[in-house]
Amino acid sequence: MALSARSMSALKAAVFLAALVPVARIGWALAFDPDALGANPAEFITRSTGDWTLRFLLLTLAVTPLRKALGWHWLAGWRRMLGLYAFFYGVTHFASFVSFDHVFVLAEILKDIVKRPFITVGVTALALMLPLAITSTDRMVRRLGAKRWRARHRLVYLIAPLGVLHFWWMVKADLTEPAIYAALLTVLLGYRVAARLREAKRKAARNRRAPLPQPNA
């Protein structure tokens, strides 16, 4: 599906605004309708921002499979925006944890990070997202070079599993929701493994068909 530059800009702007809806909803509820956040607003905000962090991580990983499967090559231009939204919601998630759970008491925050494995994993994932966010600009791509930039941004293949593990370990009873995220992640990463294997087979086949160098007379 081909899109004109104008349609592409309009659609990207619409997605950009739609991605702000979850945090805008929280802000509206805090200002005008606190009951909408349920009996425990702090927990609602922390869980909601964590959920959206994972969703944007998975959407970022879904760009390449969708682009190749559907021929929507314009989706490649969305990957950076989706990744930055994942970082934004991750920071918001962490901010809600340090403010609501520990009221910014550094000693308590550090103690909880060390003591509780699911928090350790979550903070690790967020820390790994930081260099990706910092190097997301065109200027940083030029400064690092495309090869080094791509290598660095492969950290997302570690960050997303850590995010799912953080959620899995956090849930104490019903694992249905984290299991759904884990299944989606398995499909998205499995696609990449399969694509690499196919490319390796094609490369091996080309090498076998290539004529052997003739010895010098």
What does this 3D model show about the protein?
This protein has 217 residues and is mainly alpha-helical. It contains ten helices and no strands. Helix 3 packs parallel to helix 10, helix 6 runs antiparallel to helix 9 and helix 9 runs antiparallel to helix 10. The longest helix has 34 residues. The chain is globular. The chain starts with a helix and ends in an 8-residue tail after the last helix. The model has no long low-confidence stretch (mean pLDDT 90).
Present the secondary structure layout:
Layout: H1 5-19, H2 21-32, H3 41-70, H4 79-101, H5 106-115, H6 117-134, H7 138-144, H8 146-153, H9 156-170, H10 176-209
Helix pairs in contact: 3-4, 3-9, 3-10, 4-6, 5-6, 6-9, 7-8, 9-10
Question: Could you give a quick summary of the protein structure above?
Answer:
The chain has 10 helices and no strands. The chain is mainly α and about 220 residues long. α3 (about 40-70) runs parallel beside α10 (about 175-210).
Q: What is the oligomeric state here?
A: single chain
Query: Approximately how much beta-strand content do the residues carry?
Result: under 5%
Average pLDDT reading = 90
Topology pattern, helix = H, strand = E: HHHHHHHHHH
List keywords for this structure.
217 residues, globular, mainly alpha, 10 helices
